[in-house]
Amino acid sequence: MSLYSFSKIVALMALTLGSASGCTTAATLDTVTPTVAPVSEKSASIVVDGSTGAVLYQSSADLPRVPASLTKMMTLYLTFEALKSGRITKTTLLPVSAHAASQAPSKLGLKPGQTIDVDTAIKAIVVKSANDVAVALAEYLGGTEDQFAAQMTAKAHQLGMRGTNFHNASGLPDPQQITTARDMALLGMSLRRHYPQQYYYFVTPDFVYNGKLIRGHNRVLAQLNGADGIKTGYVRASGFNIVTSINDNGRQLVAVVMGGETAKSRDAQVVSLVNAYLPQVASR
Predict the structure, then answer these.
(1) Residue 104 · residue 139 · CB < 8 Å
(2) Catalytic residue among 59, 69, 170, 245
(3) Among the options 72, 123, 155, 231, which is catalytic?
């Protein structure tokens, strides 16, 4: 089957934007023959030229995988969509329900009845990967977390993420929550392309909450020139996941590694992939 070219991706974006309110792009990333056998049933990886959509490398990129906290990329996508439309602002206060407060770690430790502003909520999700905050956002935007998860899945399918189903806003274990490395790369590209004015959040290394400095999990940000996001994730069923975005002197690249045995080995793999394939990316 022939690959979609980047021009077709752009055309589909324009068609979708013009035909449906709130709809973005309905393109998928090009499919190429896998080059490396998977290391384990959890493993998958892909490297994509962020400007053209060309796939530079892949391994098991279309096999179902557990997203873990990579899920929060879509939670933030819908948050940025709400910011852009004016439905919320960065100062909008999100109420914290008992359900949100009861989420398992990683969490900010919110209590039922508290509120948190949207700007702090975004930082807490990017830096701390806070599950309680993700659910508070989901409930505010979707009415319930289940309804928001349905919106997440619908948006994923609009973007062309054909192998993805979301069942919660955080990425905590759920057998119905699945994705692929290709879909996560497409989501990473879509975040930069559609929400450039909010994308700066993903390079945030730390933030202060209630007088306490909270440091992030994404150590790759300090290991690669031009790294500007996006998200790490881990649950037992997924292994260690990461989506890394590079914007280095006009060269854009997105690399996804899923199913790492340790955070250190996952980071080393994504750094190796970026160093190997970034020279093949043309400057814009």
Answers:
(1) no
(2) 69
(3) 72
Whether 72 sits among the annotated catalytic residues: the reply is yes
Active site (annotated) includes residue 8: no
Q: Is 129 a catalytic residue?
A: yes
Distance from C-alpha of 281 to C-alpha of 226, rounded to nearest angstrom: 13
Question: Which of 129, 170, 190, 245 is an active site residue?
Answer: 129
CA–CA separation, 199 and 190 (whole Å): 10
Q: Please name which of 131, 136, 123, 213 lies closest in space to residue 174, comparing C-alpha atoms.
A: 131
Provide block-wise average pLDDT over 10 residues at a time, the chain (284 residues).
Answer: 35 34 41 44 95 95 98 98 98 98 97 98 98 98 98 98 98 97 98 96 95 93 94 96 95 97 96 95 74
Per-residue pLDDT at 199: 97
Count Cα neighbours of 12 within 13 Å in the Cβ-side half-sphere.
16
Whole-angstrom Cα distance, residue 153 to residue 187? 12
Asked if residue 230 lies in contact with residue 221, where contact means CB atoms within 8 angstroms, the answer is: no
Q: Which helix (H) or strand (E) holds 152?
A: helix 145-158
